[in-house]
Amino acid sequence: MMARQVKDGHYQFGRYMSRGRWMSVWHQVSELLALDPKAVLEVGPGPGVLKSVINGFGCRLETLDIDEALCPDYLASAEEMPFNNGSFDVVCAFQVLEHMPFDVSLSVLREMWRVCSGGVVISLPDARPCWSSSVRIPYVRPLNIMFERPFFRGDVHVFDGEHYWEINKKGYALSDVSSLLLNCVPGAAMSTYRVRENPYHRFFVFKK
Hints:
It is a single chain. The chain has helices at 13-16, 19-34, 49-54, 102-115, 174-184; strands at 39-43, 60-65, 74-75, 88-94, 116-125, 130-135, 143-148, 189-195, 198-207. The protein is built from 5 helices and 9 strands; from the N terminus they run ααβαβββαβββαββ. It is of the alpha/beta class.
C-alpha cells in the first residue's frame, strides 16, 4: 500500500486551488455528468471540492483514499478496492495516478475499470509546454487556440516526493502512455485532451 505523501495544510485554498485548478474541476464535473451517472467513486479526493460540487447535481459521489485525514467514505487502497465488479457507474481519479510508480498506477486503473459499469475519467500531468489563447469578437463564437511546443524532448523525471512520473517526460511519451492505459481498459473507447485554461492537466475518458 502507498504511504501518505502530503503534509497537513497542503490543501489550503490560496496555495492549492489556483484558477487553473478551478477550471480543471469544471471539466471534471462536465465529463462526469456527461456520462449520466447515479453513483460515482472518486479515488484520491484531495480537499473534497468535487464531491461538494457534483452532489448538488443529482449524483451521489463517494470517495476512497488511504489517508484518513481526508475523511474518505472508504479508507482503503486503490490497488485492492473493497467493491464488487461494476459497483459504480463511473470511477474517477484526478491528478492522482502520477503519485504512484507507473506500474502501480496501471494496476489501479485496471481496478477502477473493474468496479465501474459505465466508464472511467482521469487526469494526469502533461509536462510538454503548451500555450493557449482565446480571441473574442462581438457576435462571433470565441476562437480558442492551443499550441504545443514542437520537437519537445522531455527531461528525465526525478521523484519530487509526490510525482513518480509525468506524461511527455523521457520514457513517458503520450503515445506510449495512451497505449498502456488502453491495455488496462479492454474494449474501452478513449478520448484525451488538455485543459485550455490549465494545459498541465490532461484528461482521459474511457467509456464501456
